[in-house]
Amino acid sequence: MGHDLSQDAEIWDDAYKLDRAHVFHSWHAQRNLDPTEVVTGHGVWLKYGDGREMLDFTSQQVNVNIGYQHPKVIEGIKKQAELLCTVGPDYANLARGRAASLVARRAPEGFDKVFFTNAGADANENAMRAARLFTGRDKILSSYRCYHGNTGAAISATGDWRRKPNDYSRGHVHFFTPYLYRSEFSATTQEEECERALAHLEHVIQFEGPDTIAAVLLESVPGTAGIIIPPKDYFKGVREITKKYSILMITDEVMAGFGRTGFWFALDDYDYTPDIISFAKGCNSGYVPAGGVIMSDPVAHRFDDIVFPGGLTYSGHPLAMGAIVATQEAMEEEHIVDNAYTIGKDVLGPQLTALYDKHPKIGEVRGKGVFWAVEMVADRTTKEPLDDATMKQIVAEGDKRGLILGVHNNRIHVTPPCVISADEATQGVEILDQMLTAAGC
Ligand SMILES: Cc1ncc(COP(=O)(O)O)c(C=O)c1O
Prior knowledge:
Elements: H1 5-10, H2 15-22, E1 38-42, E2 45-48, E3 53-56, H3 59-62, H4 71-83, H5 94-104, E4 111-117, H6 120-135, E5 139-143, H7 154-157, E6 172-175, H8 190-208, E7 213-219, H9 234-244, E8 248-252, E9 276-279, E10 291-296, H10 297-302, H11 318-333, H12 336-358, E11 362-368, E12 371-376, H13 388-401, E13 403-404, E14 406-408, E15 411-414, H14 422-438
Parallel strand pairs: 3-13, 5-6, 5-7, 7-8, 8-9
Antiparallel strand pairs: 1-2, 2-3, 4-10, 9-10, 11-12, 12-15, 14-15
Helix pairs in contact: 4-11, 5-11, 8-9, 12-14, 13-14
This protein binds pyridoxal-5'-phosphate (PLP).
């Protein structure tokens, strides 16, 4: 028996009550949740159910790069909805082809094919699948400090033939990537950190057995793990090591891609070419869920005559594709990636660094573009992370002052939409300054 709908009729206009009655939220114990109602948004602003206009320094899950309710993206989705709302992945469709071409042209030379997924996790699933089938090996090496998504068991649970070529639930090995502020390698400079992290990776590869390793999977900027900008030569070094052992390199651009770092892809600021790139979030700012895998030509051609055992009902969903086309065009026309670069260089970088000079509980400020972390510590010498209660207080101070801020452990993540203006960014940093003062930092 389903539940009695007449109970819902009484709360039909109340977003909060309906949410508490029926919505099961991600990543939370449900009992004490107290979600805020959001009604609409515009640019970097969100309107709450109580009427407050909030400045968003999170871009939600760091995905709304183009800002809220961009008219060109809304129009793109509307046009596609009027033409064709859905069609299966086996057909050729103009929006899908255009989206693939617009995404692929942001990748390095020699990346021409895009496999569309619904989000970032399944993009990485398919990137790993392609690497395993390409190499015939099953281990994937990735960083302890990373996030690549929240899927994994579905294909192992599958009973038919599709499980067998994908039966890789084993084979994940982790290693340490550069993080000078809390160096695993007792390094004191970025050069030392880079050199020692590369030596560590090569040792891990040798001890695991190079001929068991399909790929090294790395975020181009570890995001959720702390917006840790890798040293200039790190990826070049990883590329050399992976080539030496015929291991593929997968770059996860899900969070860092499409303008977040002030580059189309964060990897553009480094001197290397991976074999596979995964993407999602910023490709259409999540207006309609989408992600994908961009394959270098050798990887793509591997599947010219053999079946790629991967697929999704909504791979290349027309509405998501319409949103990608409109987003990519608007980002280009409105120089949104350049804006993110300039905001990072001229506004967020200098202003957040000035906060470091003023607030002793800031341990480090790091980032680029509209992708910044302010790492909070109890003590700058010991680097002991600031306690959870104070971090919660900082967020609450923001809420009172109209700023939405992302907090992860002892870090404040400053990740506004790429369309933010210099005035809006300054306004947000001024509020952050007040919040830190109010929280005794
Ligand atoms: C770097 C990275 N990869 C993958 C994912 C997973 O993406 P999704 O939540 O769209 O599945 C995320 C999500 O935050 C991410 O930051």
